[in-house]
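Justification of resources, computational component.

The compute hours requested in this renewal are based largely on the per-chain cost of generating structure records like the one below. Each record pairs the submitted sequence with a full structure-token output. That output is archived, and it is also reused by downstream analysis tasks.
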Amino acid sequence: MKFPKVYALHEIATLINCEYVGDANYLVSGMNEIHVVEKGDIVFVDHPKYYDKALNSAATIILINKKVDCPEGKALLISEDPFNDFNKLTKYFKPFAASSASISSSATIGQGTVIQPNAFIGNHVVIGENCLIHANVVIYDNTVIGNNVIIHAGTVLGADAFYYKKREDGFDQLLSGGRVVIKDNVGIGALCTIDKGVTGDTIIGEGTKLDNQVHVGHDTVIGKMCLIASQTGIAGCVIIEDEVTIWGQVGTTSGITIGKKAVIMGQTGVTKSVEGGKSYFGTPIEESREKLKQLANIKKIPEILNKLK
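The structure output for this chain reads:
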């Protein structure tokens, strides 16, 4: 997430009432999670296990809960609760703005696009040309939709990320300041849910088609010309490369990559990254031929045991 202008380090420190280490005039241009940080960004870390990863990332500013040696060319923001202070920054730069109309006056809607009754279009949404938005679709603020996109009834684009920190008295949510971006010629079925990024974008690539009741988690990037069947659940921060086919009731873990032209057969649990150009099945996931051989061999176990008697 980029800020509307570039700030100095001391200005950001003042916003969240934090001590800083480094040049007070270091330039800060945005804030992002570890997997998408760039030079000029703030990243937060609140567990020693991840200190080195954050300190050695592309981020210029590390929001951290311990004084450590500051790497050359970087700065630190010392916080008692980096998670909470990261949320403070999200609230400041991407505050919630209530809508007063079903279609926000700040939305941009292209020529030839049809929006059916009872759809909700949030603030600063951009919808391209010749789209069809069916009834009861909800499109949250800042969503970007390309041309020739069809979205069926009851689908929700841009809900918050499912991202929580456990506290003694419950769970704190990491606030979402990212977007959903839908490219040209995408088809989205009924009752799908696509969560916005925490700080970046959740992206559905050009020509991809989603069946009914598909869930896509925060910051996931789906490539071009993919087919994803009903009741599939894709976790956050997943990369699905071009021309992947995912059949029904597949579930994935977070942070994995599914390679180009892979086929994931129905009811598979994608527990790790997989190469492209192959077919996969089962939980834990394996190449489908190997998994089917294993299942065939399991059926032979009673016969083998009888021979041993």
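The chain has two domains: 2-93, 108-292. The mean pLDDT is 95.
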